[in-house]
């Protein structure tokens, strides 16, 4: 599946705006991404396993809050720096 | 308290100085020539990142650590071993342990404070976070782990309060101090949550708040209510501490075992509220503060819009205003707790960064001040590195 990377995280992905990743769940995809781009996951997911306050993750066009959500191979994942004012 | 032993003699510095500046929108380095008369400002590093602390390692003079996050992304630490030319991110930044299923665990919002370890402990660093957490790295800042028991201790958690109990920018653990005579003799402070000491390398801690005042109507015997803003340990007399607190300026001589409110000797119309506390590198009677308006709704600006440092040269019995060179009026800024420091020269060079993005310096121990840089973002920290 394809993961779309916001500009704030492209220092981890060698400036790539979209990367391919595999996993049965969002948690697995994020772990795979962190394995390939070390440090990326902690910038968007807290040590308690929750999505950070000003980060949003969409699968297809649905916002997800639970990392255990099941994914399909054709899914597109968007990581967004939320419009949170200022 | 450890038995009194002689502190190591401080080195008198003679070379040029670099100021490491952390701001709300990135980091900068301001380098002097050997006379400290000409300064050159670097391009911004990590532009747009919130840099709470940029700290040099005096043990090798090449390494520096940066505590940072962005508005959206979580907290981390970056490390440079070539004095800021290149940076690498910590592999495991400071983070609280994952809570058991069904329980709410804490989340580090930002790394607030960095302290290099004792000169005998190469590669060891301490970090303080918001909300209050104490962390340590044994490998130069590459990997971090919770240090000691206080992050999860019920008593300490009670003293820390919730994230709503601290400063407007979140409660903080700061002022991590190491006795130059003994690497196992440590202090830290919490806003709020008091001042704490360990003489056994963090295995046990004792609160030292006797003599400190708290906000009117609260019980000073309760550690929760104590809000130290900045605590410093005298390099040449490590049994003497100075503190700028939410409720005044204090000195503690460990043989006396209690804090003395030396801020009562400040002019009444200026008061003794502020963030920064700076000590002379070789004279344990000399210290500087930078008062701010802590009246009514706490404007947190220079009293009357007239910025000034105050110096004591007798351990706090008397204070002298030092405002030569600063604006005479309408300067509505202040100096945060990590944003004022001294170098190791003679006379002592003093440096401060303002909430309005200016860097000021005095080559004469505060008797006159010069603006070195303007129009930076809000300054959070200034540290001096000898080159």
Written overview of the protein:
- The complex is a heterodimer of chains A (86) and B (387).
- Chain A has 86 residues and is an alpha+beta fold.
- Chain A has a single domain, classed as Beta-grasp domain (Ubiquitin-like (UB roll), Roll), CATH 3.10.20.
- Chain A is built from 2 helices and 5 strands.
- Chain A has a 5-stranded mixed sheet, with no helix packed on it.
- The N and C termini of chain A lie far apart (33 Å).
- The model of chain A has no long low-confidence stretch (mean pLDDT 94).
- With 387 residues, chain B is mainly β.
- Chain B has a single domain, classed as YVTN repeat-like/Quinoprotein amine dehydrogenase (Methylamine Dehydrogenase, Chain H, 7 Propeller).
- Helices cover 2% and strands 37% of the residues of chain B.
- Chain B contains 1 helix and 28 strands.
- A 4-stranded antiparallel sheet of chain B has the order 3-2-1-28, with no helix packed on it. Chain B has a 4-stranded antiparallel sheet with strand order 4-5-6-7, with no helix packed on it.
- Chain B is globular, with a radius of gyration of 19 Å.
- The two termini of chain B are 34 Å apart.
- The relative contact order of chain B is 0.13.
- At the A-B interface, helix 2 of A face loops of B.
Index terms:
heterodimer; A: 86 residues; alpha+beta; Ubiquitin-like (UB roll); five-stranded mixed beta sheet; 2 helices; 19% helix; B: 387 residues; mainly beta; four-stranded antiparallel beta sheet; 28 strands
Q: Main β-sheet of chain B: number of strands, strand sense, barrel status? A: 4 strands, antiparallel
Stretches of chain A where pLDDT is under 50 for at least 5 consecutive residues are none
Number of helices of chain A: 2
Number of domains of chain B: 1
**CATH level-3 fold name of chain A:** Ubiquitin-like (UB roll)
**Number of DSSP strands of chain A?**
5
The string of secondary-structure elements of chain A, in order, is EEHHEEE
Task: Quickly give the CATH architecture of chain B.
Answer: 7 Propeller
Shape of chain B: globular
Strand order of the largest sheet of chain A: 2-1-5-3-4
Shape of chain A: globular
Average pLDDT metric of chain A: 94
The number of helical elements of chain B comes to: 1
The CATH superfamily of chain A is Beta-grasp domain
Largest sheet report of chain A: 5 strands, mixed
Strand order of the largest sheet of chain B: 3-2-1-28
Report the C-alpha radius of gyration of chain A, rounded: 12 Å
CATH structural architecture of chain A: Roll
Q: Of all protein chain pairs, which has the greatest interface, and how many residues does each chain bring to it? A: A-B, 21 and 20 residues
What is the CATH C-level name of chain A?
A: Alpha Beta
